[in-house]
Amino acid sequence: MLTTTEHRDKDRVRLVRVEEVRDESPTVRTLIFRDDLAYDAVAGQFLMVWIPRVDEIPMSVMLDPYGRAGYAAVTVRRHGYSSTALYSMHEGSMIGVRGPYGRGFRVVDGSVILVGGGTGLVPLLRLCKALSGRARRITFIMGSRSRDEVIFEDLAIRLVGSNGKVIVCTDDGSYGFKGYASDLLKALLDASSREERFDMIYTCGPEAMMLKVLKMAEDHAIDAQASLERIMKCGIGLCSSCCMGRYLLCKDGPVMDAKDALACKEFGAYARDKSGRLISI
Ligand SMILES: Cc1cc2nc3c(=O)[nH]c(=O)nc-3n(C[C@H](O)[C@H](O)[C@H](O)COP(=O)(O)OP(=O)(O)OC[C@H]3O[C@@H](n4cnc5c(N)ncnc54)[C@H](O)[C@@H]3O)c2cc1C
Question: Kindly report the CA angle at 219 between 140 and 244, in degrees rounded to 5?
Fold first, then answer.
């Protein structure tokens, strides 16, 4: 629980120096910095990251890959204007951070499955750390388009430890299981009724994938949580840019329980563009 002072500090933009930049793949980079509030973030929470003279965008809080106290990171995929500007930052660049904001994942005991794709793996790695030592067994399914884009496999193996396993899938079959992460989940769940019962499924990645994952969890009567994305601007529940049905994802999410996400007609179907117009996804 944050104190009043920490709450106030959380909403101020804190200037942090990028201490290291790591290339994770040809399009993904991790920027590591020191920030006590981000270090203490709950898995699934996000920061509003200010890129001076460019924009302020939401980014999941990434673990410091070296596990140092007081350090955190963001992992960014080069995409449009703002993410490319963040991706282009280098060692010594200054960025601003606010937060951490939003509702994170609920950590449970028992046997859990994590299903992630692309930069959706970022909050799941932090979750993996929180689960290790608590969950009885962790199965981590990591999806990416191709071998070049496989990220964080070694870190995931380290975090999962001896009571779990990491399975990598690629859409084109160039590495690991050939197919989508959701295909592999289906195979696991179909076999699980005979072998093992799962207590929770956590997911983050492309919305089409998360929709499939949550529906499968529902069919198998397994609890599930997903970390969702919408355009976010204020990050603190004022501007309503991130509305999904009756929820504001920056406050009520980004992590939602499966039943709440599935009850929203917009989930997996529509999102709002920067002007607030509803568009198909
Ligand atoms: C809670 C949360 C956590 C996120 N974590 C990560 C992460 O760890 N790594 C990462 O690479 N990306 C992350 N994103 C997505 C990232 O914030 C957007 O991709 C980024 O803002 C897009 O900037 P752009 O200029 O490249 O996009 P543009 O070219 O302007 O738009 C491309 C797409 O990005 C999305 N987008 C644009 N602006 C925003 C915005 N302000 N908020 C949310 N989505 C936006 C829209 O869906 C848009 O269609 C996260 C988003 C949310 C909501």
Answer: 80
The verdict on the CB of residue 174 being under 6 Å from ligand 1 is no
What CA–CA distance (Å, rounded) separates 273 from 124?
26
The CATH architecture annotation of domain 4-101 reads: Beta Barrel (2.40)
Task: List phi, psi (to 5°) of 239.
Answer: -90, -15
Task: Work out the percent of the chain whose per-residue pLDDT is above 90.
Answer: 90
**Global pTM value:** 0.95
The pLDDT tens digits for 186-237 are 999 988 766 678 999 999 999 999 999 999 999 999 999 999 999 999 999 9
Domain extents in the chain: 4-101, 110-280
Joined together, the tokens standing for residue 217 give 């969890």
Q: Which atom of ligand 1 is nearest to the CA of 227?
A: 1
Is there a common fold for 4-101 and 110-280? no
Looking at domain 110-280, its CATH class is alpha beta
Closest ligand 1 atom to 59 CA: 5
7 has pLDDT over 80: no
